[in-house]
Amino acid sequence: MSAIVILLLGLAGMALGYFIYSKFIAERIFQLDPNFRTPAHEFEDGIDYVPTNRFILWGHHFTSVAGAAPIVGPAIAVIWGWLPAFLWVIFGTIFFAGVHDAGAIWASVRNRARSIGAVTGDVIGPRARSLFMIVIFLVLLMVNAVFAVVISNLLIANPSAVVPAWGAIIVALIIGQLIYRRRANLLTVSIIGVAALYGLILIGPQVPIVLPETFLGLPQNALWIVILFTYAAIASLLPVWVLLQPRDYINGLQLFIGLGIVYAAILIGNPTVVAPAINPEVPAGTPSMLPLLFVTIACGAISGFHGLVSSGTTSKQINNEQDVRFVGYFGAIGEGSLALAAILATTAGFATLAEWQAVYHAFGEGSVNAFVQGGAAIVANGVGLPESIAVTLLTVMAVLFAGTTMDTGIRLQRYIMQEWGTIYNVPTLKSIPIATLVAVGSCVALAFGAGGLDGSGGLLIWPLFGTTNQLLAGLTLLVITVIIVRMARPMWFTLLPLAFLLTMTTLALLIQLVNFYNNGQWFLLFLDVVILVAAIMVLLECVGVLRKHLRENAATRTAE
After folding, report:
1. What is the DSSP letter of 2?
2. Model confidence at 401: pLDDT above 80
3. Among 101, 234, 444, 457, which is most buried by a count of CB atoms within 10 Å?
4. Considering the entire predicted model, what is its pTM?
């Protein structure tokens, strides 16, 4: 099948979702109010609460939520065939992710920009809040610990990506000063920043950087992990306008241009999708597509991590409530576009079906490397870019996505620590440096405590990420639904997606429970049970509150 057909259908579907469906949700369900005073103005401090231009904030939000997951998930899920992955990405983006992400920003903005976990305390109750915060902490712990491993592996495998990946930080620092200190024209600054990033990509292959095999007893990948956590800790302490905002904004522009290059290469080269639409001969040991498809592809369809970003950093920077639609829903569209590119790169970037099958010989294979190699082949054949440059371009895309997510993830974990300090009256946790130290320390403890010297301990609990992340998304939609019902507005546009998501995720959790038991993975079994019980208890409390508000609404309508 022609990759062009899949590309055009996917982009057309997401465009209709933004211009029609998101407009309906914004006006009829959320009823975004341009006169509402947002927390960015109410609590403006120049550090975390900063009223921000919606284009800059969109860049921050998009690159923070995207990470490597919308590449990894689809790149693995195509083993069942490209069609199921394609349908879930498109419909998931339109009816699930866009509503979830914008809804989480809106709910947080209406509740003093607190995290969705803290908002749960007011909307549902303190017990549900405590249980929810545990799930949130585990998701952030997994994301931060594992993304450090992903980035370190990419930098080791592709030394040409080191200069552009780290050079982007210097570019971002300059961009931040130009925008906020010098009040420079945004368009001019954007052009200069993007040109600088692409200049670094051209320089990268000429100046590959490789760390020593060992240093102070630490292997190469562990050195990168230590460097990454040190950087993330420093970045999380800086005001958002200094590094986080400009880095995410300029990276977002560069990444969209990278996507544009991939899409242009597809339109020009018209590669053939060699993978089957539905794979009738999956490798031995491949789990059932249902329900695993819906947790394998999270980012790119819907992801609970998005709700943490939406209600963590993004809600503190919303300048006008009407920006919620552009930043939240269009941010989801951006991630869906990346997931679509991942599907095409990993199914049309191979010369033959046999070549594709050689890569996808077992479940879990493919992943980022299939995206980089397949995408580079499409770009080289389509637009004539040297394959070495194309590989660097796509590797830098993956590293920058993962890096910006890790930046935001550490800051979010710091916010959670501070919220716990407020909720449980622990003054030391309210301190930004102490909260940052605890956040980074927990990630480092997992990375090296469970993984040894190579720092890969995050991979130990990573098998739980997909289900835990999707449970978080479902519970976030549930809290948003309760808020909507309290306002006597239509609830079906959030209730139906959350019902589907919670059903699929609970089934996947139960399947995991059986597998962990059969394989003797007792620690994972224990965590799985804890997460499942916490989710069920939050769900029951939410349902109780939801029924109460529905009865009150019905009584009000009867009285009228």
Report:
1. B
2. no
3. 101
4. 0.88
